[in-house]
Amino acid sequence: MTTYLVTGGAGFIGANFLNLLVPRQPGDRFINVDKLTYAANPASLEGLEGSGNYALERVDVADAAAVDRLFEEHAPDCVVHFAAESHVDRSILGPGEFVRTNVEGTFVLLEACRKHWAGSYDGKLFHHVSTDEVYGSLGATGMFTEDTRYDPSSPYSASKAASDHLVRAWGRTYKLPFKLTNCSNNYGPLQFPEKLIPLMILNAVEGKPLPIYGKGENVRDWLYVTDHCEAIWRVIQSGATGETYNVGGHNELMNVEVVDRIIELVAAQTGGDLEALRGLKTYVTDRPGHDLRYAIDASKIERDLGWTPQETFETGLAKTVAWYLENDAWVDAVRSGAYREWIDQNYGAR
Ligand code: NAD
Ligand code: DAU
Question: How, if at all, do strands 125-131 and 78-81 pair?
């Protein structure tokens, strides 16, 4: 039996990861370590309640004493580190929390591994979940490989770059066994509606303006979230220790193209007026330091580990629009703040 300490498991990608793996690996244990910030939603994990191999611990990964206690209590073999402040726009408005969680939180976890795994690293692993944004911006051509030089633009990507450097340094200096994945933009169910795709879906459904930064010509490389989760699992199981794997979907699109596809899907799935929906597109002031283009060369994980994405952008986006249309309760809870009250009620006195 392997015990996985999954940080940030109540967020978008972490919850998709746990929903996929907890039922599939009944012989393993999964401890979800999450501070339950605004970006978390315990409702995303409802299906796991009652699973004998799953538990949620409300803990801040930057709290060294609390993390130490978790290691004492659960004796994890593997840390899968998703927890982070993840939204670029929020990092521009308030970078402090990004440094605290993303940099200090990673440091605290690495130190806990070093302390509690001292003596033998046999069967131990720190898997660090990171982003392609550490590489900075591409021009019109080229792709990020695992050897691309780090050149982050935003406080978010700088904090993730710092965390990646810490992980590799703990590997080189203390021989801590680690693996690292740098992935492109994810989309799919359970994503907090501050990010482009869920924001545009919900605004379109409600007839609100669709705010496109600058000219809408920035390019992102979109990957369906469960394809990312399967890639992480593949790397944990079969990747080489000390190696980095880039993960991406070969779905490069300009933001305005993504918005156009969402509009078409919302019109088709709700019977809405296509022209009226198109009229909602609104060009707004650009994001400061906005990276022009991301594109991932995923040939290493494809060649060495046989991973390939299962969803195309067409199938994945259609499923995503349908999911947001069918899950009003999840959406309302996240947006109204009612779920925050639930969290305070349920966890406030613990
Ligand atoms: P998210 O914002 O949806 O979720 C983050 C989770 O981390 C939340 O549940 C939150 O409560 C938790 N968290 C935040 N601060 C914490 C702290 N101090 N202690 C414990 N838990 C804390 O993020 P996401 O989109 O699911 O991203 C997960 C990871 O994947 C991040 O490390 C991110 O950098 C990386 N990543 C994201 C994408 C993407 O497109 N979303 C792409 C590549 C990599
Ligand atoms: O590349 C991986 C990264 O993708 C992850 O590391 C981040 O955690 C994740 O948030 C995401 O970052 P982006 O900044 O690319 O995602 P976001 O959804 O915020 O924006 C996608 C693109 O859409 C970006 O070019 C900015 C633009 N945008 C975004 C919003 C929210 C708009 O034009 N309008 C908007 O309202």
Answer: parallel
Nearest C-alpha to atom 44 of ligand 1 is from which residue?
A: 131
pLDDT tens-place string over residues 277-317: 999 999 999 999 999 999 999 999 999 999 999 999 999 99
Provide the pLDDT for residue 337: 75
How far from chain centre, in Å, is Cα 331?
A: 18
SS3 126: strand
Q: Rounded to a whole number, what is the largest CA-CA distance in the chain?
A: 66
Ligand with smallest separation from the Cα of 220: 2
Could you tell me the two tokens for 178?
A: 């680690």
**Span 144-155, pLDDT tens digits:** 999 999 999 999
Closest atom of ligand 1 relative to the 13 alpha carbon: 26
Tell me how long the chain is: 350
Nearest protein Cα to ligand 2, atom 16: 195
Query: What is the reported pLDDT for 341?
Result: 72
Instruction: Give me the active site residues, please.
Output: 132-133, 156
Which residues pair with residue 3 across a beta bridge? 29
Domain ranges of the chain: 3-188+225-250+293-310+339-347
**Which ligand has its closest atom nearest to the C-alpha of 159?**
1
pTM exceeding 0.85: yes
Domain spanning 3-188+225-250+293-310+339-347, CATH architecture: 3-Layer(aba) Sandwich (3.40)
**CB atoms < 10 A from the CB of 257, how many?**
14
Please tell me the distance from the alpha carbon of residue 294 to that of residue 136, in angstroms, as a whole number. 8
